[in-house]
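Meet the record:
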Amino acid sequence: MISVVRHPWSRGVSWLLCVALVAPLLLMASPASAQSLRRVRQLRVVVLDIAPVSRTGEAPKETLRRAALDAVAKELHSNRHYLPVPDRDLQTELANLNLTPPYLPLHQVRLAQALSADVVLTGYVASQGVRTEGDKRQAKIALQVFLRDVQTGENVNGATQIEVSRVIPGDTRTDEQLETEAVELAAAAAVDRMSRYEIPQGAVLQARSRGGITINIGSRHGVKGGMRFALLRKAYDRGTGTMSLELAGHIRVNKVFATTSECRAEKDAQTVMSEDVVRAIWQEKPMVADQQNPPASASGDEDDDDEHETAKILLTVALVGLGVLVAARAMGRGGATAESVRARSATAVATESGVWTEALAGTEDSKGPGAVVKWPIPAAPSADPKAGSPYIVGYEIHRSTVPGFTPTAATLQAVVVGGRTSEYVDRAQATGARALQLRTDAKTGLVRAANVAAAGAARLEQSADGLTYEWTPSALAPGGSYHYVVRAICSGLKQSGPGALSVTRLYDLGPLTCMAQPRLVGATPGADARAWSFEWQPVAAGDLYVIQVSDTMAFSASRTLTSREMRVASEGGQSVARPFDGPSIGQSFTDAARLYWRVGVRSSLSPRVARGAAESYVFSAPHVIER
């Protein structure tokens, strides 16, 4: 042992042994350090505008705008997660781009790109008054801020904070000073909340169909059911030789697991590919739904609006209570009827793996215009088949031009099998006679559907062994107004008729005005919005139109300009030309070499799905504008 220690190489060997022991620990620690650095990477923020809001009918206080901007900028400066863009740089770029409030999402993104920023901060501030109790005075302020991501054009973070000023006996400060203190407290809390929120971001693992998309993040990463994600795809820029992420549409979460989630594509996501990046969208509604932060329904997602409509119907069902339960357990034309769930015009509709979605591009569908009819699944009986228990077998879809009509074999348009079905696409063409039998399988106890040869006579027969349908769908006429009735086919309910199957009337839908797509003729660019001219062919029964211009064929809300709604009368098949009555196209798309435009139409006689929502309109196929 003594000879080893005294050997001239002993010190070198000992150093090698120490390095060998410590190296694995250093290697294991390095990924964690890198992850920590990534987490605290500073985001470059453009503090653009915090608009004052009045909730009492009085004029908004402009002093609150300046106080909120100063307070939020100060808190961002002191937070390690954010690096605000200097205000002088912001004012210079606003002047260069000739932008004035309200700042559209498209303008916000363009401004951030010019300033090499990651996100844009906008928001609202509202005074809730100054309360006085004896010699104590206290101001209350509500502050809401959003961070809009430059790559997706969507709000990805935000916070809403209500704060009050400190109570000081004998306080002699003015109302403005008290409100400023409350704003500063709200700004500190809001920025702190945003800095602690980690935006869920991942990638697509598998895209089996539009309704079967798996992403690699789940509940452990903050994903929740119904959450919307922006879909980003890698694109190679030949000019600069660099890779960047471009918006490819949106997806919505259906089911959430620990480390993965199942999603469905929204209609602006024409393709979904493995390894596409997904980034969560902030779900909180703005205090004021203005042009600066448009409502979520303007995003072009029809399902978002459907969920709100469904919630309203379910609330109505809860209010009528026993009426629905009685209707669900009665035979024939029961008494509970929910008001218009949704019947909406559609033109180009495609199907993939049983999932119906709207087509956004291409020529007018050869099948012509149609209707997408949707309804909420009843709470009782069960929508899942189970032998020996009552359940919903499927639905009858009836159509007529008369409101409140009585469903018969003559009005039957389709029999949809499956209790979980909540949508039917009604086409404009008649397809010949059809016949279907529903019978209970003696072995399984479940109802089976079988197509049979049609005899030619319309009938709807209930017998001891099941139901027999025979019907001929009628054609939809463009410009016609229609009403729908949805009836549930149930098995196992107590009823007075023969057999185990019964039919219950559930929902009355409509009226719906069926329209074809507008046909575009051409567009003539100009120096400003009013100088641009758009020409198209009006459609039957459509009298209200909007023009949309975007730099993407997906027409996502954050990258699309929409004109004010205009009334246009059909002029005997002649085309009409109108200017773009809205924000400046030239200022909004200065660098875009190619733009897309389309025209949407609706009838003033049909109820709107949601005010300002894209789903209210039947849109033409997009055309290209080369600049």
In short: Confidence is low (pLDDT under 50) at residues 27-40, 297-366, 609-614. The first strand starts at residue 43 and ends at 53.
